[in-house]
C-alpha cells in the first residue's frame, strides 16, 4: 500500500519529496530575465502547477513530458490555487514508481466497465445498428485503445479509461431517458453515445501524459470519426450481406458531428434530430457533473464550505457543511 501524499491531499506549506508524472514543461524568463521551470505534476488524484526558480537548460532537459520524476519542494497557496515550489527535480528510477498511484481506474474497473458496455450495446435491436456496434466491439485493436483512452485533455474524464467511463455513463443515461420519450429512438441514441467520441482513440496520445496527436490537432475527433464509421459500415455490410440504409448512416454521422451542440463549441452542425438533441444534452450533463465534482474534490480551500471563485464559471461551488 502506497504511503504517498496524493495531489488532492496536499495542504498549504507542506514539504514534499516524492514521485509525480511530469507534463507541460516550459523554461521561461521571469520579469528580471532569470529562467524558471514551469510544469504540471500529477498523480491519479489530480495535478498541481509547479515552479522551479533559477532553473537552467540542463534542468529542462533532465526529463521529458510523460516521465516520472522525483520532486522535492514545498506547497503554497497562490491566488486561491495550490502550487508546488520545487527545489529539486530528477527522473525517477523504475523501482521508485508505483504505477497504481497514477491510474485513476484500476484494470479490474476497466474490465468491468468494458463488459457492461458490450452488454448494453448488444441489447440494440435494430439489425443494422447491432451489426455496426458488433464490428467495433470485436475489433481488438480499437477496443484496446477505447478502454485506455481519456475523454479529454483537462476538462472532464482526463485520465486513462476516461473515454470508456464517460461513454458507459452516457449509454446508461440513454437507457434511462429514451423510454420517457416515445418519439426518441433508443438504438440510435445508444450508437450515438458509443461513437460520438470514438475517434478520440486516435485524436489523443495517452501512453503517459495526455496530448494531441498530429492528426488530432489537424482534424479533430469529429472529422476523424467519419472515416472510422464508413469503414465499419462496409465491414458490417460484408459480414451480414445486407446493405445499411444510407439515411441511417447519415443520421449516425450527424449524431457525431453535432454532439457539441453549438458552433461556438466546435460542432460542425447544430443537432437536427431528436436523438442528436438528447445526445448533446446528456453529453453535456455527464461532462459537467464530472468536471464540477473534480473541482469540488480538488479545491484546496479545506477550511471553507465553499470552493474558490472560478472566473470561467462565474461562481463558487458549495461543498457542503464541513465536519469539524
Report what the structure shows.
The protein is α+β, with helices and mostly antiparallel strands and about 325 residues long. It folds into two domains: about 5-100, Beta Barrel (OB fold (Dihydrolipoamide Acetyltransferase, E2P)), CATH 2.40.50; about 105-295, Hypothetical protein af1432 (Orthogonal Bundle). Helix content is about 40%, strand content about 20%. A five-stranded mixed beta barrel has the order 1-2-3-5-4. It has a two-stranded antiparallel sheet with strand order 6-7. Strand 4 and strand 5 (about 80-90) form a beta hairpin. Helix 6 packs across helix 10 (about 245-255), helix 6 crosses helix 11 (about 275-300) and helix 9 packs antiparallel against helix 10. The longest helix is centred in the last third of the chain and has 25 residues, at about 275-300. The protein is elongated and about 65 Å long. The two termini are about 30 Å apart. About 30% of the residues are buried. The model has no long low-confidence stretch (mean pLDDT about 90). It holds the Pfam family HD. One of its GO terms (biological process) is rRNA 3'-end processing. Keywords: Hydrolase. This is 3'-5' exoribonuclease YhaM. InterPro entries: HD_domain, NA-bd_OB-fold, NA-bd_OB_tRNA, YhaM_exoribonuc/phosphodiest.
